[in-house]
Amino acid sequence: MDFELRAAKAKWEKEQKEKKEKARKRLEQERKAREEAAKRQEAIEAAQRIRRIEETAAAIAASAQELEDLEAGDGIIFNRVFKALLVAGKGDKIRLPASSFEQLSSQSAIDKGPMFFEVSAVHHGSRPSTSSSAASHLEQHEINGESSKPRSTHAGVLEFTAEEGVVELPPHVWHNAGFSDPEYLSKNIHRGIPEARVRYVRLPKGTYAKLQPEGGDFADVFNHKAVLETELRQHASLTEGDLLTVHHGGVDYGLRVLELKPRTNVSVLETDLEVDVVGPGETTSSPQSRLSPLTLGKAESGLVEEGKYTYYRFTIDPQTEKGIEARTLDILVHLEVETKGGSDADADLYVAAHPLLYPTKHQHQWSSHDVGSKVICMTASPSTGESTKVVGAGGYSIGVFGFQGNTRFRLWVEARAAEARVSHGQRLGANAGDKEASSSASQLTQSDDGFSLCQNCKQLVPGRTLMLHEAYCRRHNFACQHPGCGVVLRKGDKDKHVHCSKCGLGLTSEELAKHMKVFHERLKCECGVELEMEAMVEHRASSCPKRLVSCRFCGDMVQAGAPADNVRDRLRDLTQHESECGARTADCDACGRAIMLKEMDIHIAAAHSGGQSMHRGDSLFTGSATPAATLPANEPLGARSGAVTNQPGANRVTDSSISIQVECPICSTKFGGADREQQLNSHLDDEHFKTQLPTPMDLDGLFSPAPTTSVPENSLRSLTVSCPICGMAVHSERDLSQHIDLVH
Q1: Could you say which of 283, 409, 658, 697 is the most buried, measured as most Cβ atoms within 10 Å of its Cβ?
Q2: CATH number, residue 235
């Protein structure tokens, strides 16, 4: 009995224990579930708080950005992200899609004047973790939004022809917007096509800019003002910190924008901008100039590698120029090549006057290709006539070209008295004029009695010693029988004297190989033409479309380009650049009208000076033509009576030449009588120029108050200007241009 009770008790205790364990486990599970639910709820609430903070921050940022865009755009909002595409081009003009034009025009952006845009590269940063606290997220947002603000630049707009969703950026905008920065490339290159943020802004007109060259080469540029004007003409804006790349004479110069006024980003359109160029050594260290300075009379040593150039520069002062003009001084450029150890290294010498900074075998003014050391005399002989190269005050560049091997050399320039000039004879590369000049000094005149001509060397010798001289001369000397040569050599040098098979120039056998390579190996020009060196130099100086010319309108050294498209510009001998550059307008100093630069001479001759001497370089006219009497533009030609005066100080002429006839310059029809000029003008308008006269309705608004009497048609036609060449009166300046093209 006791046994059964104990067994029942043990069983009951065991069951109670199991029930308690199950109850404990169930309570533990419920507790864990409540804790997990609480954690999940806390996480959800935290995520909701973060999302609300993000939404609030985004709304605040969007509102601030909208206000900033509204203020920056002067009431116009345009802030979009495009795929950025690098395209070839100059300046800072970008291309946008057509939808951008619709968006801007709908806000009347066109009415506000030129459009400017802020362009920046879009940086794709990592998103913050959702488990971070709100404070840390706000701190991260502040860091990403403020401290790491992307670099930006400003640009104008060229066209609205880009593909939808794409903005086309020229190199200037691409690099300054930060797309070329190593940091940007390392973080975003794996994302494919980069993105650019483009925002419409309004920019004030710039008044001041400080630029600093990145290197020392820009100091060698001849005309900084003209170069910068040409470059800035292709830009619409400037931004502090931008790198402005100036292309001049085939070389790219980098200038950093250090300071701008009145703001850190300004417009350069239709404004007078004061520009200061800071020396590269004032604030930063920079590489030296490619043009090493030379002092007259002081030698410089150097090393030039084969196929490369080493450049120097020197200056001729006005005092030395006077000696050159008086032919008491010569400028000699010496190049002494070191030939120690039997080295066959050699270098060539090229010289050019500024603004050509870097003379080459394609483009130079003086050159020497002698084997070994060489000398260039830059003062041409009077016997060379029109081929004389003018040497005056100013800067000159020297290019030492490594013809063969690595060449060590000594270079110096000296101003030597003309009497001390040494004739070097016929040297490799000397032209015919130089040979005549060198030989004429040693010739004697046959007018002196007692002299006879040696039949071997063709020199005049005293008659009493002629037989002895000829016997000695024939035994020791050899006269070259090649046509046009006649040089007298020692018989021991006979085998060394050869002639070029192409040009017939007399040379030594050592010089022939170099002569053939230098003068007769065809060179390829940038424009694709292949010519020998002398023809190439002439081509680069006169007809190559890629030759550098000094523009008569902007003063910069630019590529000439193809012949001008306009026939009138071709008749004026304007290059393609000058035709485009001359199409810019400037205010006439006399009347204030906006006149094209290339038409300024015609305007001044017709409206003001009446054909007297003109300005702006090469003119279409000269002051030698006698102009006809002119009247103010608002006075009808038929109102003339009595005497009229040409120019101040001119003689008075009376109106007694009624019998004189005038002839149409196109069809030769003659007109006479007192109104012959009106008849000719009417004939030209009706038969040739087809000039459209204003209608009476158009004339109503031109005069205030309206005239009480009717205006005869002939009086309207007689508002004339006179041709500064022949004096014929024509209807307008446009007709004057056509008259000059057709007649003169």
Answers
A1: 409
A2: 3.10.330.10
Distance CA 200, CA 103 (A): 11
Neighbours of 152 (CB within 10 A): 19
For residue 720, give the nearest of 692, 682, 673, 663 by alpha carbon: 682
The whole-number average pLDDT for the span 114-137 is 63
Q: Cβ contacts of residue 686 below 8 Å, gap of 6+?
A: none
Q: Give per-residue pLDDT as tens, 713-739.
A: 443 334 456 676 666 666 666 677 776
Distance from C-alpha of 67 to C-alpha of 77, rounded to nearest angstrom: 9
Q: Which residue has the higher pLDDT, 700 or 358?
A: 358
Distance CA(507)–CA(267), nearest Å, equals 62
pLDDT tens string 3-33: 788 888 888 888 888 888 889 899 999 999 9
- Pair of tokens at residue 104: 């801007």
pLDDT for res 188: 66
**Residue that is last in its domain, among 252, 283, 314:** 283
Could you give the angle at the alpha carbon of 736 between the alpha carbons of 707 and 682, nearest 5°?
A: 55
- SS3 readout for 404-454: ECCEEEEEEEEEEEHHHCCCCCCCCCCCHHHHHHHHHCCCCCCCCCCEEEC
Q: Rounded to 5, what percent of the chain is helix, strand, coil?
A: 35, 25, 40
Give the pLDDT score at 210: 92
Mean pLDDT across the chain: 75
136 in any annotated domain? yes
Residue 369, phi then psi, degrees to nearest 5:
-125, 25
At residue 560, the 3 state secondary structure works out as coil
Backbone angles phi, psi at 173, to 5 degrees: -70, -40
Tokens of 622: 């000269």
pLDDT score, position 249 = 74
Regarding whether 182 and 246 lie in a shared domain, the answer is no
Question: Which tokens is 531 given?
Answer: 């010519």
| DSSP H helix total and E strand total for the chain | 19, 39
Residue 323 lies in a domain: yes
* Three-class DSSP labels, 674-721: CCHHHHHHHHHHHHHHCCCCCCHHHHHCCCCCCCCCCCCHHHHHCCCE
Distance CA 335, CA 349 (A): 7
pLDDT of residue 100: 93
Supply the range of the domain harboring residue 99: 69-200
Asked whether the CA dihedral 482, 487, 491, 496 is positive or negative, the reply is negative
Per-residue pLDDT reduced to its tens digit, 43-72: 999 999 999 998 888 888 878 877 877 777
Q: How far is CA 493 from CA 476, 631, 723, in A?
A: 10, 79, 69
The confidence score (pLDDT) of residue 676 equals 72
386 within a domain of the structure (yes/no): no
Residue 626 is predicted with a pLDDT of 31
What is the percent of the chain with per-residue pLDDT over 90, rounded to a whole number? 19
- What secondary structure does DSSP assign to 206-221, as a single string? P-EEEEEESSSGGGG-
Number of neighbours of residue 436 by Cβ within 10 angstroms: 12
